[in-house]
Write a structure and sequence with these properties.
By secondary structure, the chain is an alpha/beta fold. It contains 4 helices and 5 strands; from the N terminus they run E-E-H-E-H-E-H-E-H. Strands 1-2-3-4-5 form a 5-stranded mixed sheet, with helices on both faces. The chain starts with 5 loop residues before the first strand and ends with a helix.
């Protein structure tokens, strides 16, 4: 397990850009949801940059689903960017990809929001 799991949140206008790194597990997922409690109230669209996520477990997927549901309930979008490697395979095998918009990169996700 990666001990350097980190969360970086940028807010630009109504957009939350969340960059995660390391292991997206119960620890990081819980910290992420706690940090987003107030941020999500003031945000519309959310991009989750998962480019540097090396590991994803069911608790991490639960955090992603929670963010997706919160965003969708308000009529906005949540896009996963940079999902690759083992985390991508976990999302595929769980069939959760069908509830998310997924883009190859942060820039592709930004471009998608502008459409």
């Amino acid at each position: 397990m990666n001990k350097n799991s980190e969360i970086y949140i940028e807010k630009t206008g109504d957009l939350l850009m969340i960059t995660l790194s390391g292991d997206l597990n119960a620890s990081l997922g819980g910290r992420l949801l706690e940090k987003l409690k107030t941020q999500m109230e003031r945000a519309r669209d959310v991009i989750l940059d998962l480019t540097d996520v090396d590991y994803l477990d069911s608790a991490g997927m639960g955090a992603l689903v929670s963010i997706q549901m919160s965003t969708k309930r308000k009529g906005y979008r949540c896009i996963l960017a940079g999902l690759q490697g083992a985390p991508l395979e976990v999302m595929k095998s769980s069939q959760l990809l069908r509830i998310f918009q997924v883009q190859d990169s942060r820039q592709a996700a930004l471009d998608e929001l502008e459409r």
